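[job 4471] stage=fold_predict status=RUNNING
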Amino acid sequence: MILILVVDDDLDVAKTISMNLASQGYQVVVANNGYEALQRIHRQHPDLILLDMAMPEMDGIEVCQRVRANPTTAAIPILFLTARSGIESKIVGFNAGADDYLVKPFNLQELELRVKALLRRTSKQTESPQTLTVGTLTLNVRTFEMTNASRKALLTPVEFELLYFLMTHAGEVFTSGDLLRHVWRYPPDAGSPELVRVHIKNLRNKIEAAPHAPVYLKTIGRFGYSIQIDEPPNAALPSERP
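[job 4471] inference complete, writing structure tokens
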């Protein structure tokens, strides 16, 4: 059974979320602060973490960073739940390693959809070949590890989903709206292009030797993003970038 950890210092919010998810057939455990959350994460290794951003003593940002810094927990999907709706707060959350972001108060049906989208990676791991390769770029579907001509990096779940989708459609160009629908499973006209831009930036920082001059993950002016299929074998080396 899929195990979801709900972390929120508001007991009523945590109870409402946990009851709703339990009614959907998930096993749910609750933590009411960051320290308890880390203990449960390392002891129970949940399949998904719903994490309140603003908590006393240890906030969600620090919890997220610690989860991502530990190789044994780094691949667990994390969805931030927060009352902070500003784009600056979202960017801070994504840079900390969050996969998605839901602003309180939220619709429980929307929460269910976000949860299902983040858990899709579980089926991908069991159904897909172990590795996916495009040119000199290789993605390990089991470990979320990316390797290319010059580097190796462990991806967060949403970075993995984004790179996996673009690599399986190498050479094609996708707008932010396309990626919100295909990767995040948002309905049309939902979600912010900023969500895509931040994750593209974070992904480039991991896979590109020179993120400001990418050779793998290209921006096609006024159209969108694409994984290129014709890069030379040593294109990722700093000495060879344009």
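[job 4471] summary: The CA atoms of residues 87 and 194 lie 8 Å apart.
[job 4471] exit 0
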